[in-house]
């Protein structure tokens, strides 16, 4: 007798797996009704430009949270990497060098994050908090607190378009596929889920826990570096004080997108959707002229709701599992 | 009839899609032990949770001392004198004995904890129960059975007249079981009704006054112990006759597959040497804390060892990590599958494939179709019952979870398979399947090591048994010398003391 059934179709699983997509859809419909300008090509392209930087950070956060880590330094590291990238562009005039510098710096910072976590067993929270301070301080020290202006064609990447598609959107889509592929189709991805789900079991199954954590941080560094170029390019300056709190926006997108802070659960698709939900929400609140302080309160409330929903469904699932098992 | 302490009458409980309890009626007499047995998932836990107020029944009623009661939550249950000791002991490691005993009901004076009273009452309680720990000892420094004793003391101290124990012996040794049983006898004498859930036949028959057997949410039989025998209980539990308890087959042992010499970790175990040949099942017996699990973890690369050598197929092998062990075709099923075996939130597929992912990787890409096929094959061979391969393993029963872990290791095609408590906490039917699989593996020429605290299964399954005592191997027995007494003598160090005396 075969004991393996086929996955059954049921509305409750559908609504659970796809509820986040439904929320996004509902939001788009509702927003279009509230303000006809919302669904214009110009507005949508604007929103994607705005959210591309934080979405790319969110991919890194998702990868890290899945394996039980997180990065509180990404905003500061973004600033440091972007700043050095702008400076190197002004010297060499080469965008390739600019990217290489940004990615190199961000990966180096994340290498240090990973060393603190793997070698000295520091909690990622503390290790990356320390890096947040160090990276921000380094950025400010480098320009003595001044902004760098007149950055020339550096702005193309962040402000340009190919046809009607904003260039940052292309980066977003590209890095989405990188994240999706890594999480779904590689040994690395499987290892991340296992480590975050149960580190002891992953270790006892022969998974190199520290090696994979290191790799997760390095990939996060790659993403932060790219985001650094996009950010500085879009704001048309090298800002040592730029992108403050961006790590929290990345975390927010990731969590709203269904990544579980307890580890082992999360997807690339959910992260993008989470990010668009946040982006569209900001956008529609702006279009509707909602007071900016009130906007902040609303954003906070939505994070709280997302977390409550996550825990609630988890509890409900556990309860129904217990019942299911008890009934078998 | 009026001597019934607790009665449940016609209790039914359904959860979406399933009827977990179907018209259950049971009675526990005052000052007696009612043993509830049944396979995992028979409905025992659901019933206990209803009695403890965690769930509300759909139908039926609960009577205490003949009076109808509504138990809405565990706090109310406690007030009614119902106390439950869970299988997985809940305790806070950093608390002291006295804090733990009075946790949630610390006596206060003007809002300040009255530590003097706490100390005095703790000492009284410990003395009354004949336990000799300092009230300031931390819980984490106590053994599992000590913690269990304290739980019982706590239950007694709140005047529990109904004590529910869910598989209390699954993590303690034989000697500690004796202590527990003595305590239960004492409670009985004081008039406490004990409801005792267990899988283990020998203890069921030692301790029970009445036995009730649950299967598929129904009471299939309930009567005084004397009207039952072991075969009858087992066949009622599983609903079918077991062919024999152990499907042991005679296998000609082949070449030496695994040899450990002089393995030591100071303070944990000393000078441990053993070997296993292909086709052999070699047992490791010993009391809890004898160092069996620690030895296995060390040879599997999970913990480091200070000195000693490992030879695999006669050649010296360096096992510094689990990766090394897997590469040398050694696998280990851990004693604690939740902690070391499973990634509960992930799917059956991911868990089974976890330690052999390299098999499914082509040019860095995970080959999903091939993975599905191989995982399906192994699940069918193991007879894993799961709604689908993408079901999270946390949704499976204990026995099926164990098969998933075992499947994970078999996918690696190990030559040496170490199994630490392979049948802990799983039901009779699944146990039998695992025994059968072990025998098949031995017949295929694998070398098996089985660590177990259940002597009958060691005796039934093994070709040789090593016995450990206090971190050392105290003896080795061939199959024709297996008796519970011989093993226990070696495990308790009786033999060694006798030798040293002469």
Strand content of chain A: under 5%
Number of domains of chain A: 1
What is the element string of chain A, with H for helices and E for strands? Answer: HHHHHHEEHHHHHHH
Number of strands of chain B: 24
What average pLDDT do the residues of chain A reach? 90
Distance from N terminus to C terminus of chain B (CA atoms, Å) equals 59 Å
Strand order of the largest sheet of chain B: 6-9-10-3-11-12
Residues in helix, % of chain B: 25-40%
Strand order of the largest sheet of chain A: 1-2
Query: Can you summarize the main beta sheet of chain B?
Result: 6 strands, mixed
Characterise this structure.
The complex is a heterodimer of chains A (328) and B (502). Chain A is an all-alpha fold. Chain A has a single domain (40-319), classed as ABC transporter involved in vitamin B12 uptake, BtuC, CATH 1.10.3470. Chain A is built from 13 helices and two strands; from the N terminus they run ααααααββααααααα. Chain A has helices at 11-34, 41-66, 74-92, 95-118, 124-142, 156-159, 167-185, 187-197, 199-204, 209-235, 246-256, 268-287, 292-327, and strands spanning 161-162, 165-166. Chain A has a two-stranded antiparallel sheet. In chain A, β1 and β2 (165-166) form a beta hairpin. Chain A is globular. Mean pLDDT of chain A is 90; it is low at 322-328. In chain B, α5 runs parallel beside α6 and α13 crosses α14 (398-410). Chain B has two domains: 4-238, P-loop containing nucleotide triphosphate hydrolases (Rossmann fold); 256-329 and 414-501, P-loop containing nucleotide triphosphate hydrolases (Rossmann fold, 3-Layer(aba) Sandwich), CATH 3.40.50. Chain B is globular, with a radius of gyration of 24 Å. Chain B is α/β, with parallel strands linked by helices and 502 residues long. The chains are: A mainly alpha (328), B alpha/beta (502).
